[in-house]
Amino acid sequence: MNGEIHIKQFQPVRHKPVPRSNNSAIISASDVGISDEEWGRLQKALDWPIPDHIVYLNQSTSPVHSSFSIVGHKESYKVGENISVTITARDHNKNLKRYGGDFFKAKLFNSELKASVYGEVVDHRNGTYSVDFLLPWEGQAQVFVRLEHSSEVVQIIKKYRDSSFPRSHFNGYFESGPSKTRIREVVECNLKWGADGSWSKGNCCCEYKDIRTGTVWQCERPKTLSCDKLVYHSGGRLESPLNRFEQQLFAK
């Protein structure tokens, strides 16, 4: 999706203050050394809407049928002015989406000048989004909007980000004895996952704790060698947590 505008001479602009968020948090702005305004902005940015549950692929957001328009579009603008863009999300049946959570990116650019600026996308949680752009250069400019992930895919990513599913698996190498009669064993290793620190393997476990970070590394217990015979580890297999329906949502 793209659109074109023309920008001319400079006129100063006053930025609107960032609205405060009403979200509460365990820690405060002073704890992390930032202003209350910036803290509110961060809390608002992290508060991502939750979409409706869908059962069919065609109910997810479609990049083909979604669209945008420049609000109050004029033939020319002045440098320093703002333009507003409204994005309307639709599903694959061309129906308007009734909830938010889509991950859109929007930018203003000029290919000849090799200039561009991204706008902040505001989610209105009803299937529409707005973007404000500051016009910083003189000449032509185009607006480009891209759907990075549908709201449905965003929630899948969030679900597995917050889970203890071990997507990457590692091999631990245990060795002991002289070179000619050296005993070697290879077992599966990983970080200690889960709120309860549970490990999915039955023959559990050798643990190695980093005293600086508190991170615990776990390996299956070797059949013959002791836990102190771990020599090194390497990357092993990768495992996708997605079920078949989720895999289809990630497809292009």
From TrEMBL:
Pfam families: Neurexophilin
Gene3D superfamilies assigned to the protein according to its UniProt record, in alphabetical order: Immunoglobulins (2.60.40.10)
SUPFAM superfamilies: E set domains (SSF81296)
InterPro entries: Ig-like_fold, Ig_E-set, NXPH/NXPE
GO biological process, one term: nervous system development
PANTHER family the record matches: NEUREXOPHILIN AND PC-ESTERASE DOMAIN FAMILY, MEMBER 5 (PTHR16165:SF23), NXPE FAMILY MEMBER (PTHR16165)
The name this protein goes by in its record: NXPE family member 3-like
Taxonomic lineage from the root: Eukaryota, Metazoa, Chordata, Craniata, Vertebrata
